[in-house]
Fold this protein.
Amino acid sequence: MKITNGKDFWAGLMFIAFGLGFMLVARNYAMGNAVRMGPAYFPTVLGGMLAVLGAAIFFRAFVSKIPHPLAVFPFRLWFVVGGLVLSVIAFYTQPPRDAGMVAQIAHMLLSGGAIGLLFAAFGPRSLWVILVSVVVFGYLLKPLGLVVATGLLIFGSAWGGHEFKTKEVTFLFIALAIFSVFAFVRGLGLPMNIWPAFLE
């Protein structure tokens, strides 16, 4: 079969890879059920949905036509070089376990910057901005807490879109932050900070 839509092809592969990755990592935890969710329940369900969505998008790449299909996925070599350099620096400057919070956050930002540059080497701005926002959320969830990390995720992802409306994004952030706190911390009892560690 011939690829006729490069954007759907790469997006589908990325969704499938992330979905299967979530499900693979979740195998090490208890599953539970819909009423009493275990640590593996949410990432397994989300990963499965993501993989199915990715498969649908992947197969659509062979039937939906756009001109110059691979031109929608540009490559920037200098971003790869910068990401690799930062990765090496981050690897050899890992702080010890008893390091202060400032040193840990600085190292997380350095590592996140390295991953961000590697993501930014491929595809349009909206793709890598959203991916970097997810990476930043993962790195800063523990030191900055769920509310601040969710804000960075929502505002960063919205900035990667075609339009950025501050009022709508702020409303979405407040709604998702409240939902996340009550669903995951209060409801499921997941051990995560709501606010930055130095405030609790």
About this structure: The CA atoms of residues 32 and 200 lie 30 Å apart. The mean pLDDT is 78.
